[in-house]
Amino acid sequence: MAAPGDQMEDMELVSKELLKVMVGGKAVSMLKHNLAKQEQMIDKLLDTQKTTAQLIKELMTTEEKVAQRLSDREEELNASLQKLQKIEERLLQANEEDVKMRTSTKELRNELETLKEKIRQQEKKSDEDANASMSATYLAHLYYQICHIDWDYTCEPTMIKGIHYGPDIAQPISMDSSHHSSCFISDYLWNLISTSW
After folding, report:
1. How does pLDDT run across 39-59, given as a tens digit for each residue?
2. Selection from 172, 164, 153, 173 nearest residue 194 by Cα
3. 148: closest CA among 172, 164, 160?
4. 5 pLDDT band (50/70/90 cuts)?
5. How far apart are CA 155 and CA 175, in angstroms?
6. What's the CA gap between 135 and 25, in Å, rounded?
7. With contact defined as beta carbons under 8 Å apart, do 1 and 10 qualify?
8. Does 140 have pLDDT greater than 80?
């Protein structure tokens, strides 16, 4: 560190140099020059502030536009999502209806198969009944050819009525089954039939 006396000498030298500069008239021109530079710097600073303010204003406008666009895009996205959700709900409903239709179709096919089977059984039974009816008709015709009896089916259930057409004359039959045994009735009817064939 310099001694106090040295500092004083340095200050004196600086003072003398300043005095020379001031006396030489350079100080005023330097000061003017520095002031002009300072004004230029202040002008540049003001221009920079104006430009910065304009840029900030434009940036804020751009940010507002971007924010508005973003908000519009979000609304469009929400609308699209709602449409998508509705489409998904319709698809689910369509799938459920499809499952119901398939189940219903399967049930209807089962019912159809059951009905076809019943019809087959009924046709078979009908054929059997037709065969049985033909057999019954044949047997009735055969019985008539053998016994020659026309039965009266309009009488009361306990009565046995008819006409036997024997070889000589027609003979009426009328008896009450409640007064005679089955064995007696059977023997009586067999005795009417001619054994000479």
Report:
1. 888 888 888 888 998 999 989
2. 164
3. 164
4. low
5. 11
6. 159
7. no
8. no
Beta pairing, strands 149-151 & 170-176: unpaired
Tallying the residues shown for the chain, one arrives at 197
What does the DSSP assignment read for 150-176?
EE-TTS-TTEEEEEEE-SS-EEEEEEE
Instruction: List the structure tokens of 161.
Output: 């009525």
**Tokens 């500069």 map to which residue?**
21
Six token digits for residue 155: 């009488």
What's the sign of the alpha-carbon dihedral 99, 101, 106, 110?
A: positive
Please give the model's pTM, rounded to 2 decimal places: 0.36
Element (H, E) at 149: strand 149-151
Asked if 155 contacts 161 with a C-beta cutoff of 8 angstroms, the reply is yes
The one-letter amino acid code at 158 reads: T
Task: Give me the residues paired with residue 173 across strands.
Answer: 162
Residue with tokens 């089954």: 177
Cα distance between residue 113 and residue 119, in whole Å: 10
- 144 CB neighbour count, 10 Å cutoff: 13
User: Residue 177: which of 163, 165, 189 has the closest Cα?
Assistant: 189
- Band the pLDDT of 89: cuts 50, 70, 90: very high
Cα separation, 151 vs 148, whole angstroms: 10
Between the alpha carbon of residue 141 and those of residues 38, 134, 148, 155, the distances in Å are 148, 10, 10, 21
